[in-house]
Amino acid sequence: MKHLLLYFFLLIPCIGLMAQDNDNPIADVKVQDSIKVVDDKYREDQFYVSITYNLLGNKPDGVSQSGFSSGFHFGFIRDMPINDKRNIAIGLGLGLSTNSYNQTLLISKFNNDFAYSVIDGDVSFSKNKFTTYLLEVPLEFRWRTSTPTDYNFWRIYGGIKFGYIVYNSSKFNGSADTIKLSNIDDFNDFQYGLTLSAGYSNVNFHLYYALNSIFSNEAKLESSGSSIDMNTVKIGLIFYIL
């Protein structure tokens, strides 16, 4: 009997050790479950929203901007990394854009022909602007400091943006007359320009410089008969949303 009791007390520590060993697989599973899975094939697929101040370049003599000319842009860009670290990529997207330009170039229509003239300083008016609505395709070369686990990073995205004007309009409100026009034939339907976006995290500086003019060669000033070679420069902020 004494021998049985001795064996019993000797077995207790062994049973405890065996129980600890049996618990280890469960503990290992819990540790593995707590480890964050890293996506080493991540992409920066992004929705973007941009607000810009629109400037006019190459303005004809006498034409000036008045008021605030704004642009609103939004769309989606597909990110395609081209290196193992996935911090260099090509981005291709699709978006929409609306742009207004407050200025002193009057667009009117006579006998089904559009006419362009500079508003005289003596003419009183409350509004004179033209507006364009575009379908856009941005193409970007992208560099960033992102990692699979870091979503706040520095970025520099440069490229080119192609746009097609799907609708345009102009509006003049003067003391003596109101002129509203739409689908003006003399706009260049196809627009393209260089883009640059740079910054940190979601909010970034954005620049667009048009490489072609807003109007076609058919649009000419009444006073001189010269072509209207105005292009656009857009400066603002762009917000990237994963």
TrEMBL record:
<dbReference type="Pfam" id="PF13568">
    <property type="entry name" value="OMP_b-brl_2"/>
</dbReference>
<dbReference type="InterPro" id="IPR025665">
    <property type="entry name" value="Beta-barrel_OMP_2"/>
</dbReference>
<keyword id="KW-0732">Signal</keyword>
<protein>
    <submittedName>
        <fullName>PorT family protein</fullName>
    </submittedName>
</protein>
<feature type="domain" description="Outer membrane protein beta-barrel">
    <location>
        <begin position="24"/>
        <end position="215"/>
    </location>
</feature>
<feature type="signal peptide">
    <location>
        <begin position="1"/>
        <end position="19"/>
    </location>
</feature>
